[in-house]
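ugh finaly. both done.
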Amino acid sequence: MNDGQPSQTVRKAMPENIKPVESLLTIDKAAKELGVHTWALRRAVKSGTVPAYRPFNGRALVRISEVIAAINASKIGGNNV
């Protein structure tokens, strides 16, 4: 019943330790975004260097941050920044 008072909706705040989920991209889109060859990224996924996810339709999907981490882990020489 509405007695002239505004309804009070209780909203729970998101906990601070929960971060937004990074989206998954197809290998083609991820390769284009990073400027690497599609075949090179497919080979890295096949060898297990880059983790991939195959939800529902079986298409391999990757996270950009994981591709970048794999590239940085394979760095030879220079300063580690």
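ok and the 2nd:
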Amino acid sequence: MTPRPAWSGHQVEERTEADRRWESRFSQRHRHGLLRGPKPPTDYTLRWSGPVRGIDGALYHAGEDRTGAPVIFVFSPGHQEVVPASWATDDWAEHRARTDGLFVPLGDWRRTRADYEDLVLAYLIQRPRELADLGRWVPVDTFTTHVRYGIFEAMLALHAEEELATSAAVEQRVRRSTEELSPRLAQLVAETMDTPAYLRRLMVTPSTSIEALDAAVHLVMADWKATRTTSPTDARHQHTGLPDDPTEVNPHLPTQLQDQP
């Protein structure tokens, strides 16, 4: 074993295979240009208090644009966006950090990606048997924080094993995958996200079959269109369950996806 250099403050911890899988979760989104960057900071004024970290691990930063209209900055490992709102977004940012109560969308006329992802997962965790349909065409990296990604990944694994993806079973599967991480990364996970609390909130968040399906369609189509815009060639190889030609009917897609422009 190579001696530790005298100047080193600590020994570098060896990365596990679980670490590598964790760190590569959103690599395809990055390759295809799906990590949306916010507009230049000069166009906006952010709260001096800084961002609020949600229980999903994302950062929510309230602010205003140059006209004084409220906006929310959302920073997550797989997506970044600036979303306008009808009222100040400070309370909504704090709302994302709560450990109980249902999730409320930013607004009806403009929602964040987190709102759409919440709707899909809330529907599936409350009705796990519906995973047989949505799980066939929604990619796991559609969910852009480690908490949401991990929950959907656990759901798919349980479904593949013909086990019911209940909230308790999903939480146990996520905990098991976290235990496979190196101690340093596992500690980071514990300090920056709260999967049990997120699952509890999903269980009380209303989501109908129509809302969940529309949200899933919105998410998958938004990624697919963005990928084709940034890299048309690579988009053909991205596994989204969507045809290269939108007019080409795929029998495995719901009707809402078969006639998208």
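summary for the 2nd one i guess: The chain has twelve helices and five strands.
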